[in-house]
Known about the structure:
Layout: H1 2-12, H2 14-17, H3 26-41, H4 59-62, H5 65-80
Amino acid sequence: MQREWYTKVLSKEIDVINSTTGKVDKARLQNILMHLRKCCNHPYLFDGAEPRPFVTDHKLIENCGKLVLLEKLLDRLKKNGSLKIHAVQ
C-alpha cells in the first residue's frame, strides 16, 4: 500500500520532479515532500486510504512497512526472552 501511495504522489507531481528549467516552485516541492513523509509514516494518513468500516485489525500493520518490521522484531525479541512486557498501572 505504501508503494502505491508513493507512486500516486510522485506521478501526480512528475513535472516538478523532472523540471529542467532549474526553477522549482519551493512550495510545491515542500508539499511533495510532506506527502512522501505522510506515506512513510503510514498510508492511512491520506484521506480515503483506510478501508471502511474503520477497524483496528492486522491490516493496520500489513499496510505499513515499518510496522511489519517492528512486529517481526518484537516477535523475535519475545522468542529470545529479551522482551519482558510489564503491565502499566
